[in-house]
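REQUEST FORM: STRUCTURE PREDICTION
Request ID: SP-0412
Submitted by: Lab K.M.
Chain count: 1
Length (residues): 221
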Amino acid sequence: MCGRFSLWLSLSDLQEAWPDFIFPQEMSPRYNIAPTQPVAVVPNTGDHQVAFFRWGLIPFWAKEADVGNTLFNARAETVANKPAFSAAFKQRRCLVLADGFYEWRAEADGKTKTPMYIRMASGQPFAFAGLWETWGPQESLTHSCTIITTRPNALVAPIHDRMPVILPPEAYAQWLNPATPPFALNTLLKPYPAEPMTAYAVSRLVNSPMNDTPDCIAPAV
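STATUS: Completed
RESULT:
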């Protein structure tokens, strides 16, 4: 699963990495983004506008918004068929912007879990494959999203048995094109290569979403 991630790079760095995206005038650095919080996404609406959607997808047919609290991840293996995600997978795909994510490594004692921060060794930001939905009455629509996960690569495998799908830039257009048929997307839902990535242990501060400071991404002493 992917239950925490970050997007703390400066607006100028993000714009340099993604010159085609239209960013808002201000973006606050986020070091410990948790489900139900706003996340930066590029939905497939054709304008490459960066927007903020609630993390935790609320299906259009849901009776209560709380349904989305547990739908912050969608498994690549079942996303095309699971009722909560299938409609969005066909029509409403997005990029979820990030510069790192967290997973918890189980230690040998069977009791302790160490938070690990995983990012590109270059420090460059990247984009998760996501889905989005709208929910509620027209006058107060809620925009929400989920992150698709897949099996881990060689770097993540010793830490966790899942990782988010990270899309290479050359796949963005195919992912965001509403005309792309779902069967053509399956080849994109795979582990990102391990070689460009790095991982290190961080403080247990990240265990609480109340903590959202640079200390969350600092290497553990």
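NOTES: The radius of gyration is 17 Å.
Reviewed by: T.R.
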